[in-house]
Amino acid sequence: MKKLIFILFIAITACRNNSDNYLKNDFRVLDIEGNVGKGRVVKISEIADEVLYIPLETNNECLVNEPNRGVKYYSGLIYIVSSENPQHIKIFDTTGRYIRTFNRFGRGPQEYDYIQRLRIERATNNILISTPTQLCEYTQEGLFIRRVLLPSVNFIDRYGFREFIKINDNRYVLSVSINKNSKYSAIVIDSLSDVKALVKYPESEIALQQNLLGSMFNPYMYKFKNDVRIINSNDEYVITLNEDVKFDTAFIFNYGKYKMTAKNTPNKPSMNDKYIDRSSLVYESDRYLFLQFNMRGLAKKHFVIYYEYSSKYKIFPIAYSYFDKKTGEFNFIYQPDKNQFGFLDDIGGGTALWPIDISDDGYMICYLNALEFLEYAKSSKASDSFKKIAENLKDNDNPVIVRVKLKNQFYIDRLD
User: Fold this and answer.
1) What is the pLDDT at residue 75?
2) More confident residue, 269 or 120
3) How far apart are CA 33 and CA 373, in angstroms?
4) 3-class DSSP string for 259-305
5) Looking at residue 90, what is its pLDDT?
6) What is the rounded CA–CA span in Å between residue 223 and residue 215?
7) Would the CA dihedral through 301, 307, 311, 314 be positive or negative?
8) Contact residues for 354 (Cβ-Cβ < 8 A; gap 6+)
């Protein structure tokens, strides 16, 4: 375990000592500092070749609410986590046809009592469900395979964890909730819950956390193919962990003079401060990263929401952005219209698009609820094809899933 921690520390130290070279010739660098004050409306056609709308079948067996607890598009199937009790998963095919309901909710040793996160295992298509205390693994047919419990470690017992990702058949990565005394941002365990490695929390982030009053910036972790990406709060170095539990640097967020540090950040940060931190989830495809940043007092254009019932606007200093891993180009994205965020849909002629998932075959997955779809169809900006889909929708129908074919990706042809 000590050897793994040491290797991780050396890798990051090497990155810090050569940051100037990275900025000049490394396509892993997101030049956030150099793009402050810049931005534009970005059309979906700049990053994609095709937009396909998939209305989900609606009947009494397969009603779903807002899929904000998880949508996965894997091996030609769409999985939507229900937030209703008992929590379950509705499964549809690529045409939107309802297939079945997955439900192992309960208090038994082979059941889950809460769906904190849903993942589909790349190699087996097994269903992985993490709860606040364990990770449960099932076959597609719902047969129980195993459960992995949280390890009994002092800082886990006291402060809990946030993510639970299976990296290979006998290794799991857990991201840890941060407090002012944190030394580690993640741990690696085996299927018996024994700790095998600790991911050291950067000293600069420890100093920042100790300087703040109130809420902490927790580490963020996500799966990209067979690797796990770890973002240590506001640290600029994004770590990647492969199946062999080897660490490397995946990306570098160049915040430059706008990086939050213990020296430049007040005890109680405000929305007028001149620094930037990452906001919300990160989505990664073969070619692109999709991210959001809290620009605070540096925001040139704010994200605007208009509430028709009260005729009031609410503004947020949140900037949407994307990074092209092939060219090294980073862009902030301006809001294309009120109450919309993401990419202007000049292909499908619908509302703006932003991912909620990247499928296993490299497509960007988005969704629109039926009412939102119908409202936009009334607009003069909606295309004829978009309006035609709306003709067969009711406002209480299931959501419409959007499948976006990104440019220059490697796609898997499926014989359905």
Assistant:
1) 92
2) 120
3) 36
4) ECCCCCCCCCCCCCCCCEEEEEEEEECCCEEEEEEECHHHCCCCEEE
5) 96
6) 26
7) negative
8) 290, 320, 341, 342, 343, 366
* Terminal-to-terminal C-alpha distance of the chain: 45
At position 288, the amino acid (one-letter code) is Y
Is pLDDT of 395 > 90?
Answer: yes
Q: Which two tokens stand for residue 281?
A: 């989830």
Phi, psi of 2 (to 5 degrees): -60, -35
Closest CA to 357 of 95, 79, 9: 79
**Amino acid residing at 30:** L
> Residue 345: which of 317, 379, 391, 303 has the closest Cα?
379
3-state secondary structure of 331: strand
In angstroms, the CA 25 to CA 328 distance is 9
Kindly list the distances between the CA atom of residue 267 and the CA atoms of 132, 207, 213, 296, in Å, as whole numbers in the listed order: 30, 12, 5, 16
At 230, the amino acid letter reads I
The token duo for 271 is 């929305």
- 313: helix, coil or strand? strand
Query: For 24-170, where are the E strands, in sequence order?
Result: 29-30, 48-55, 71-74, 77-81, 89-93, 98-102, 117-120, 127-130, 134-138, 144-149, 161-168
Q: Are 141 and 102 in contact (CB under 8 A)?
A: no
Q: Which CATH number fits domain 2-8+27-406: 3.40.50.880, 2.40.30.20, 2.40.50.140, 2.120.10.30?
A: 2.120.10.30
Residue 209: both structure tokens together? 């956390």
Band of pLDDT at residue 206, cut at 50, 70 and 90: confident
268's CB contacts (< 8 A; 6+ apart) are 212, 213, 214
- This prediction has a pTM of 0.90
Instruction: Pick the closest to residue 80 from 103, 60, 59 (CA basis).
Output: 103
> What DSSP character marks residue 56?
P
Distance separating alpha carbons of residues 215 and 207, to the nearest angstrom = 14
3-state secondary structure of 130: strand
Burial pattern 54-91, b for ≥16 Cβ within 10 A else e, equals: bbbbbeeebebeebebbbbbbeebbbbbbeeeebbbbb
Task: Find the helix or strand (DSSP H, E) in which 385 lies.
Answer: helix 384-390
Of 45-54, 83-92, 268-277, 285-294, which gets the smallest average pLDDT?
Answer: 268-277
| Residue-level pLDDT at 272 | 82
